[in-house]
Structures are given as structure tokens and as C-alpha cells.
Amino acid sequence: MRRLRDAWLYLTVVPAVSLAVLLLAGFALRANVQVERSRQQSVFDATWSVASERVDRLDKMIIAQDNAVAASVDVTQLAALAARWLPTASRETPTVRAVMVVDLGHASSEVRAYVAPTPGPDEESFRRLVIQKLLPLMQLHSPPEEQLRHLHRTVSGRSYLLSYWQRMDGDRPLLVVVWHDISRLVHEVMPQLYRELDKNSRMNVIDARGRVLFGPAIRASGPLVSLPFPTTLYDWRLQVALTSAEGLEEKARRQRLVTLGMVGLAAVVVLAATIALVRAAREERRLAALKGDFVANVSHELKTPLASVRMFGEMLLTGRVANDDKRREYLKIIVGESERLTSLIDNVLDFAKVERGKDAYDFGEGDLLEVARRAVDNLRYRAERQGVILGLEGTHGPCVLDERAIELAAMNLIDNALKYARGTKVIRVAVEPLADGAKLVVSDEGPGIDEDDRARIFDRFVRGREAQAQRTRGSGIGLALVKHIAESHGGPVRLTTRTTPPTGSTFEVRLPARPPRWRPPRA
Predict the structure, then answer these.
(1) Whether the predicted pLDDT of 274 surpasses 80
(2) Would you state the CATH architecture of domain 96-180?
(3) What is the residue extent of each domain of the chain?
(4) Which residues are CB-neighbours of 439 under 8 A, at least 6 positions away?
(5) What number does CATH give the domain 353-512?
(6) Which terminus of the chain is less hemmed in, N or C, by CB atoms within 10 Å?
(7) What percentage of the chain carries pLDDT values higher than 70?
């Protein structure tokens, strides 16, 4: 009955309410759109004209300073650069922070000259930044062209504006680089250029991510023109909205709200509530069933190894052991089952922390191969009992990771291969270096994973149909925990599987060299 009721809600009520909302909104908005279209076009044209004039004004001011620097640079007399430029620098080029001349003919792009009005501690880092990161981004031509160009880039969270042109010193190509002070442009130049706009319009400058760098936030209630700076700060945009347009738009918005408010709000609330209730009920029933299976599976997983530990412990305690070889065998079984219990309890505890939204990771420098070796050693005895060869290969790969978490992820992957990869004779564990980190690979020769199960195999409480059919013990949280550990380290976990000979599954956990949430310790 519940399924029939859900189907009736989805197939009749929800589409009917959606259609009613669309029809009412469409008829109400159509009249307003026709009336406002011509007015909005005229307002938009006026705003566009204002914005174009303002971006050109800042571009021309920066280019004028570049030309003033160019007049002071004589590549044949670089020793006189400071004497020619610095006396007028504060007046003619107030936003220029430094001028640098780079020898492009030199193998390591040698800096031939560097002049700054106020030398600072970051000069050397800026030189390295230009040579190593910014120089490859510049449009350089051979033979050199003296055309003025600009480079606007954000590096390590800091924005840089460089003006540059090429010149020849005899037979050696040189590059003149002018470093503009972005902070001074934002806090001193822009308020002077755009202060009069506050009377009749609103204006601000935003970066590529939409963050406001200068000016107030603009509520997009009317025609808003957003133009990039043509040649200089081309990664930034100038936004302009006329205040008169905002007033007209506010009036029109109130009219639309009066027309559509009551009907639209009621319809949207009914539609949203209907969909939310149906989805919440279905999701609650699904999670309740999965959690019930999870509790039953975990209870069974705990009961079986505890029974083995108790049985062999009692045999050792009562002295019913034939010889020392049997005693050692029973002790190995007890140790193996204890490790299995520890792994399961660690899984449940870490999964509980994930469910509560707590971070349980302690990043530090370690060796991924050593972590994988510990995981393999913990499960080697169990693999031998099942007649499976558990091999480890790879090279030492120092990286930043949570050793306990990665060891737990590796043990989960190996444990899954031992439990579900029926018929496998070899389980291969490998650590392979990557250009920006390393990866842990666990592969088997089992029957593979059905295509229908692959999409949800990393979801919590989900177990494949083959595992359920075989009644293989498991909690359904191992792969979900592996995925969370991998993503917390900044890397994905990938599954490749083959269901046709040669069959098998391969899980890859990729770890970047530096996790996104790791910060190096202070010296």
C-alpha cells in the first residue's frame, strides 16, 4: 500500500501542482515582461556606456605609466636606470612598484637590472616568481617585438599585474617588466577615479571568483553591466548599475510580487512540502532497513571471532593441547581473530566519527610503502590459511598522510578481497609513485563486481548482491570508510573490474603529495 501511495503522489499530485505553478507564473509574468522590455533596453544601453568609459579610464592611466617607464629605460645603459626613473617615479608612475630587465638570451633568464622606489623584503621572491612561473605565461616573440603587453594573474592567493615589452641590446633579446602595485590601485587609484559614481550609480570591481575587491556589493535587481578591463586587469571586472534603474526595478518587482505572491507562494509551498515528505519517508525507510542489516551483520562479525578466541583460549587454559606446534597454531588463531576484531571495531568507531561529522585524521610525514607493509603483515596469516598468496611490491614513497587511517583503508581493501573474491589465488598490493603523490593498488583474481553494484558499492551499508547471495559476513561500511579516508587525503578511490576472463577487481587509492587540509609544522 505504501508503494502504491507513493506512486500515486509522484504520478498525479506532484505533476498537477507543478503544472499549475508553471501556468499561473507564466500568464502573470508575460504581461509584465512585455511592458518592461523596452524600458530595460534603454537603461541597459546607458549603463553599458558608463561602464565602458570607466574601464577605459583605468586602462589608459596604467598604460600612461608604462609609457613613462619606457621612456626612462635605455637597454644600452641599464646602470643609469635608477637615476633616470626614480626622481619622477612618485609623480609620473605612482603605482609602479619595481622595474626589472631580464636577459632572455641567457640560459637561466638572468636579471640584468632591478630598480624599486622603496626596496622591500619580497624582492628576491618576486624575481623567482617572474622567472619560474610568470615568464612562461608571457607572449614573447622571436624576433622581439616592442609591443606593450600585460599579464594579470593570481599566484598563491596574491594578484599580480605586470606590464612588459621586448627590446634588443645588440644581439641579445631583453625583456622589460614593470610590476604594478595592486593594493595601491585598489585603495588609492580606484577611489579617485570612481568616487563621483556614487551619486548616480553603483559600481564595484570583482575578481574572477566574483569576490568584491572595491566598492559596495550590488544587488542584481536591475540591469547590471559587467565588463572586463580590456588590456590591464583583464582578470577583474567592473560592475555598474544605475541607481535610477534600481528604483524602477524595485517598483516593478513589487508589482510582480503583488500579482504572483499569494498564488505562487502557496503553490510552491505545497509542491515543495509534498516532494520533501515523500522523499524523506522513502529515505527514512531505506536507511532504517540498511541500519538493521548493518547491526545484524556487525553482531555476527563480532560473535564469530569471539567464539573462536574463547574456544582456543579454553583449550590452552585447560591444557588440552597435544604439543607445542598446536599451541603455537592456536595462539596464532587467537591473534588473528583478535586483529580481525580490532579492525572491525576500528571501522565502526571511525565510521561513527564520520557520521557525526568529526575529523579523526592526524596528518604527518610517512612512508606509504611501510604503511602498506603493516597492513599486509596483519592479514598475511589469514591469507595463508585461505591458500591465497598476498604479495606486496613497490618503492618507498614519502608523503603526508594519516598512517593509521591509510593502514585501515588498506586492510579493508585486502579484507574485502579475501572475503568476496572467490577463487582468487593471488592478491596483489602495490605502491606506485605518481607525478604529484603516490597510489595504493589492491587487485585480485576474483569474479569481479556486477555492473549494477559498481555505482553504489562505496555507499554506506550497501553490500553487493553476490555477497548477499553467498551470505558472506560483512558490515557494509568498509568501502564507505575507504572512500572517506581517500577524499579526506585529497585523492579519489577508483574501481576497475572485469567480469569476463581474465576476471578480477582493482581498487586504487590516490594520495596527493600534500593533503588539502594539511599545514606544515612551524619551524
Answers:
(1) no
(2) 2-Layer Sandwich (3.30)
(3) 96-180, 353-512
(4) 431, 432, 491, 508, 509, 510, 511
(5) 3.30.565.10
(6) C
(7) 71
